[in-house]
Each structure stands twice: as C-alpha cells, then as structure tokens.
Design a protein that fits this description.
The chain is an alpha+beta fold. It has 2 domains: 81 residues, no CATH class; 145 residues, NADH Oxidase (3-Layer(aba) Sandwich). A 4-stranded antiparallel beta sheet has the order 1-2-4-3, sandwiched between helices. α3 crosses α7. The chain binds flavin mononucleotide.
Length: 278
C-alpha cells in the first residue's frame, strides 16, 4: 500500500474530522488510514443481505486484534433472525436500526470459556472473579469489535455500536442463552449504508485535548474543548440539529445519575451474571 506522506493535505477528510482545528503536522495517509479517518456511524441500511463470507471475514479481522496474553476471552453472537433482532431492539431502547440491519452482532466479555477449560483440565478458578480478569475480557472484546468495524468499513459497509445492550443485560443474556460469567458489552448493527440517507463524519476534539506529550496537561485539554464546542455547534447547525455545546452534553450525561439511563444498576447486573469483581 503506498505511503502518501508527501501528498497534499486531504482538506476534505481533515476538515470533516477536525473542522478548523486539524493537526498542523502533515498526516501520513494511505488507504487504511483514509478508511479510519472517514468513519461515521450508519443507522440506515439497504434491505439486502450481506455477501456470503462477510460475517466470517469480520470475525477473522476481529480475531486478528491483539489479545491480552492470547487469552481471547471474548465471544460474539451473530443475530440475523428477524424475531430475535426485534426482541433485542426492544431491550436496547427501541432502536429501529437493530431490526433494519441484516446483521446484529453482540460482543461479549467471556470468562466462561476459560473457566470451563480450566475445570476440564482439573484446574481452579481463583483468578476469575477479579476486576482485572473482567477488564481483560472487556479490553479484548473491544479491540476485536473495532477491528471488525475497520474491516467492514473497508468493504463499504456501515455499522453503529449499540451500548443500549447494557440497559437490560440479564434479559439479553437470557435471549442469547449466555452462561454465567459472560457479559454483553455492546451490540453492533451491520449493513450496506442506504445511499438515500447519507451520514456525515462527526468532528472530534482537537488533538491537543487527547494527545499530551510526556506529561498530562489539563489546561491544554480544556482550551481545546472550548474550540471543539464551536466546531461541534457548526456541525449541529449544518445537520439541522439542535445546537448544544459538547461540554454541556458531557456534563449533562455524567453530571447527574439520570444520564446513566438506568445503567447505574450495572454492578448488580454484573453480580447476577456471575461477575464478583473483587
Ligand atoms: C460503545 C458504544 C455504544 C454506542 N451506543 C449507541 C447506541 O446505543 N445507539 C446509537 O445510535 N449509537 C450508539 N453509539 C454511537 C455513538 O453515538 C457514535 O459513535 C458517536 O456519536 C460518534 O459518532 P460517529 O461514530 O458517527 O463518529 C455508540 C458508540 C459506542 C462506541
């Protein structure tokens, strides 16, 4: 794949991603990086099945992600049956795209497989109930899912993550037949984007907010957030959306318990799914 380091700046791509606040340094662009920078969530799909082999390709990409100590403590359940998608859509807050997408993937932190094989080998389970083991599974599953997203976008497909899967984790676990110590983390709708309903790239924070050199610098981050509020307001205006400062969105979401949309009960849900989290 050619390295296009010296190519002229991709004005469109960077402008969409950063508004007026693109990094000053020239980016090193190639096809892979263009695909990553062009990401946008897609919530409208064509009513068409995915090409044969698509699911297996996405899972191969997911499995190619790094995994802590090669433990591979994640699983994904692929849901294509319309009735099951409809029941899951109801559980995630009536999100229509879950029904409309030909494929709905549920990504799982899975300590059950490791626990089973240890038991089969006559081993113990002392390490299973710790926060560390749960985090390993969450990190592994997340890296795998995002590799699948990069792969599907490179194929011209679109997707949207569904955090609503954590609204009712026990009901999702029952629907999918999950054993104890398997936790649904997020869903992913996958389909061919409907060209009649195109989606825009949503600008991100200036790099100064997320990239600190050598040591952490809150003042630098806060200054960048103020610039981002302006950029995102412009994006909201262009999209015909209500203009709300991003910093207010974050404050509203995390500043009051209501912002968690019922997911403040997650600790109890995790316990009932067999995660002690010591
Ligand atoms: C873990 C996770 C959960 C999400 N859950 C939902 C969801 O339940 N419904 C939805 O419409 N979008 C969901 N999203 C999509 C985000 O809203 C979206 O990624 C964000 O607004 C940035 O937009 P972009 O992906 O188009 O760049 C989720 C994203 C992530 C990473």
């Amino acid at each position: 794949m050619p390295d296009l380091t010296m190519a002229p700046p991709p004005e469109g791509l960077l402008r969409e991603r950063y508004g007026d606040h693109a990094p000053a340094a020239p980016l090193r662009l190639n096809e892979t990086i263009r695909t990553l920078l062009g990401h946008r969530s897609v919530r409208r799909y064509l009513d068409e099945p995915l090409a044969p082999g698509t699911l297996e390709t996405l899972v191969a990409a997911a499995q190619s992600a790094s995994t802590s100590s090669n433990l591979q403590v994640w699983t994904v359940v692929a849901v294509e049956e319309p009735d099951r998608k409809a029941r899951l859509a109801a559980l995630v807050g009536d999100q229509k795209h879950v029904v409309q997408a030909p494929l709905f993937l549920v990504w799982l932190a899975d300590l059950a497989r490791a626990e089973r094989l240890s038991a089969q080998a006559g081993g113990g389970r002392e390490g299973i109930d710790y926060v560390e083991s749960f985090l390993v599974a969450v990190v592994d599953a997340t890296l795998a899912a995002q590799s699948a997203v990069a792969a599907l976008e490179s194929l011209g497909l679109g997707s949207v993550y569904i955090g609503g899967i954590r609204n009712h984790p026990q009901a999702v676990a029952a629907e999918l037949g999950l054993p104890p110590r398997v936790m649904p983390l997020f869903g992913l709708c996958v389909g061919k984007p409907d060209p009649e309903r195109p989606t825009s790239v949503k600008p991100r924070l200036p790099q100064e907010a997320v990239l600190h050199r050598e040591t952490y610098d809150p003042a630098q981050a806060d200054e960048a957030v103020a610039r981002y509020d302006v950029t995102l307001s412009g994006f909201q205006r262009a999209q015909g959306m209500a203009e709300v400062a991003w910093s207010k969105i974050v404050a509203d979401r995390l500043g009051v318990l209501k912002g968690l949309n019922g997911r403040e009960r997650l600790r109890a849900a995790l316990e009932s799914l067999g995660f002690e989290l010591r």
